[in-house]
Amino acid sequence: MEFYHSLKAQNNIFNITRIYLLYTFILDVSFIYMAADSTNLIIVESPSKARTLKRYLGDNYQIEASVGHIRDLPKSDLGVDIENNFKPTYVAAEDKAKVISQLKKLMKNAATLYLATDPDREGEAIAWHLTEILNPSIPVKRLVFHEITKKAIQESFDHTRDIDKSLVGAQEARRILDRLWGYQVSQKLWYNVKGGLSAGRVQSPSIKIVVDREKERAKFKEGEYWSITAQFDSKGNNFESRLKEVESHKIAIGKDFGKETGVLTKSDLLALDESRATKLVEAFSKSSWLVSKIEQKPATQNPYPPFITSTLQQEGIRKLKMSSQQVMRTAQHLYEEGYITYMRTDSISLSSEALNASRNAIKKLYGTEFLPDKPRVFKSKVKNAQEAHEAIRPAGSTFQSPKDVQGNLKELEWKLYDLIWKRTLASQMKSAKLLKTNVEISDGNAIFDAKGKVIEFPGFLKVYVEDIDDPGKEKDDKESLLPPMNEGESVSATEFTPNQHFTKPSPRYTEASLVKELEELGIGRPSTYAAIMGNIQQRGYVRKVKGALIPTFTAYAVVQFLERYFTDMVNLQYTASLEDTLDAISRSEMKSDEFLGYFYFGQNSTPGLQALLDSEFDKDQSRTIMELKDENDETIAVKIGR
């Protein structure tokens, strides 16, 4: 009897298990094949995103691409009714007629329209424009996901929402602002400076930043100084050091010289010339040297946060030698193919799912000694950062390793994925433990200084090290491996070398450093930086030479004209404040027509754009970039245009 009851219980457990498995299978299949009668239409922006969605939703869903924006302000007209609360006039893009016709046709047989455009202002605006032009009579639902995975798509179906009108309003306010600013001011540039020129809310300050740096470099006066390096030997181990002090005077280095004067900025420093350096070398060769001081300090280096749009661009430029536009195009493709999360974000936070995936990968690949007790939480220091989304990371609850995906991706795609994967894991690893050593060698009259750094525990450095834009910055604080020494120990000098140096101007901007500057100033949004980097080069304002951005005469003329007649357009603080206001509109804290009214008509004693457009312009002065004197003391004007 006991055997009978036991067998019966086992059968019950087996049946319950079978029912549960069948239930979960039905749930799974119902997600993939819900609305199997093809009565649901999903619209996304791109064909590649549509193809990826089809992998999860099956053939019973009709998934179509709008191929970007479906309508916009007219190209040949202002398209804004200024006297009617800045009401915009939108027109369908000429190349979208077939797309619109196809979408309308498909919608006739659909029970529900799902709008799965990107999860940002532009995506929300595209979704709204689709409803305006398609005029659906069926239910419309907004699908939002930040990665294209089965789980994320299922959750988006579980949490559909209406179109966010505040986000749409913020995007529309930006578009109208940019049209008023760019369209009307550009016309003044055409007439007064040169045809075909353009101005823009983010473009113009970007050009000014590059021009201002070039002006700073033009004012630079070179300063000459000398240094002395020494090779010392301790118990058969050679190490290099640099002269730090002579007769209680510290030796001047490059940063101690004025950039516009080329002379020392501090009177208590000693600037060596060739003669003095040579004499000191002769004297040092006759001296006896002792280790006079040893300082050792433990140091901790913390990992960098995961990527946001701007930092991904910066590192893609530095490490992979890509342009901003290449980085964003490649990241867009990785997102649409389901490899990474959405790439337009300024949030450095990671979801609990991503934190678990990171920690599991670290534990598996590097061991528990590289895993901190708790997940790291980062807080943004960037002006105007919005924390709505996640950072850029590998998609899914289990990150695919670069090795796993290498066969599926093109070379640059794989390199960028590898960069994102490494940065994400590194952000959740233990800090690096360093031991910094400073050794002073003295003969009683002079002091040589040697700096060393030992990595006692690599931590996150085992996976990722961030690049810098100006490698020359670190030369004065060069660190090397030092042999073990004791204070009072005698060391022998094997060589003294005098070295000639010249001070250097501030480096020209690169795409990476300009993106960083714009981000820190709070000008524009990271999602626009790649387009700006492309525009300022394609429109002839900036040339890229060996990675450096060099302004053209046209750039000088445009900045000069804007500084003279449209000061706010190139006022970096004012431009950043506009970004604050536009963000306030997206939070429904301000009405867009009120803001546009202040901008265009002015407020109190502050003139608006309209008053500036009505100014009198000196055409000849606007075209003159600089004036020079010839050998007869006659003035030669350098002008742009005809």
Automatic annotation (TrEMBL):
<dbReference type="InterPro" id="IPR005733">
    <property type="entry name" value="TopoI_bac-type"/>
</dbReference>
<feature type="domain" description="Toprim">
    <location>
        <begin position="39"/>
        <end position="149"/>
    </location>
</feature>
<dbReference type="InterPro" id="IPR028612">
    <property type="entry name" value="Topoisom_1_IA"/>
</dbReference>
<keyword id="KW-0413">Isomerase</keyword>
<comment type="similarity">
    <text>Belongs to the type IA topoisomerase family.</text>
</comment>
<dbReference type="GO" id="GO:0046872">
    <property type="term" value="F:metal ion binding"/>
</dbReference>
<dbReference type="InterPro" id="IPR006171">
    <property type="entry name" value="TOPRIM_dom"/>
</dbReference>
<dbReference type="Pfam" id="PF01131">
    <property type="entry name" value="Topoisom_bac"/>
</dbReference>
<dbReference type="InterPro" id="IPR013825">
    <property type="entry name" value="Topo_IA_cen_sub2"/>
</dbReference>
<dbReference type="InterPro" id="IPR003602">
    <property type="entry name" value="Topo_IA_DNA-bd_dom"/>
</dbReference>
<keyword id="KW-1133">Transmembrane helix</keyword>
<dbReference type="InterPro" id="IPR013826">
    <property type="entry name" value="Topo_IA_cen_sub3"/>
</dbReference>
<keyword id="KW-0460">Magnesium</keyword>
<dbReference type="Pfam" id="PF01751">
    <property type="entry name" value="Toprim"/>
</dbReference>
<dbReference type="InterPro" id="IPR013497">
    <property type="entry name" value="Topo_IA_cen"/>
</dbReference>
<dbReference type="InterPro" id="IPR023405">
    <property type="entry name" value="Topo_IA_core_domain"/>
</dbReference>
<keyword id="KW-0812">Transmembrane</keyword>
<keyword id="KW-0799">Topoisomerase</keyword>
<dbReference type="InterPro" id="IPR023406">
    <property type="entry name" value="Topo_IA_AS"/>
</dbReference>
<dbReference type="GO" id="GO:0006265">
    <property type="term" value="P:DNA topological change"/>
</dbReference>
<dbReference type="InterPro" id="IPR003601">
    <property type="entry name" value="Topo_IA_2"/>
</dbReference>
<dbReference type="GO" id="GO:0003677">
    <property type="term" value="F:DNA binding"/>
</dbReference>
<feature type="transmembrane region" description="Helical">
    <location>
        <begin position="20"/>
        <end position="36"/>
    </location>
</feature>
<protein>
    <recommendedName>
        <fullName>DNA topoisomerase</fullName>
        <ecNumber>5.6.2.1</ecNumber>
    </recommendedName>
</protein>
<feature type="region of interest" description="Disordered">
    <location>
        <begin position="472"/>
        <end position="505"/>
    </location>
</feature>
<dbReference type="GO" id="GO:0003917">
    <property type="term" value="F:DNA topoisomerase type I (single strand cut, ATP-independent) activity"/>
</dbReference>
<feature type="domain" description="Topo IA-type catalytic">
    <location>
        <begin position="164"/>
        <end position="607"/>
    </location>
</feature>
<dbReference type="InterPro" id="IPR000380">
    <property type="entry name" value="Topo_IA"/>
</dbReference>
<dbReference type="InterPro" id="IPR013824">
    <property type="entry name" value="Topo_IA_cen_sub1"/>
</dbReference>
<keyword id="KW-0238">DNA-binding</keyword>
<dbReference type="InterPro" id="IPR034149">
    <property type="entry name" value="TOPRIM_TopoI"/>
</dbReference>
<keyword id="KW-0479">Metal-binding</keyword>
<keyword id="KW-0472">Membrane</keyword>
<feature type="compositionally biased region" description="Polar residues">
    <location>
        <begin position="489"/>
        <end position="503"/>
    </location>
</feature>
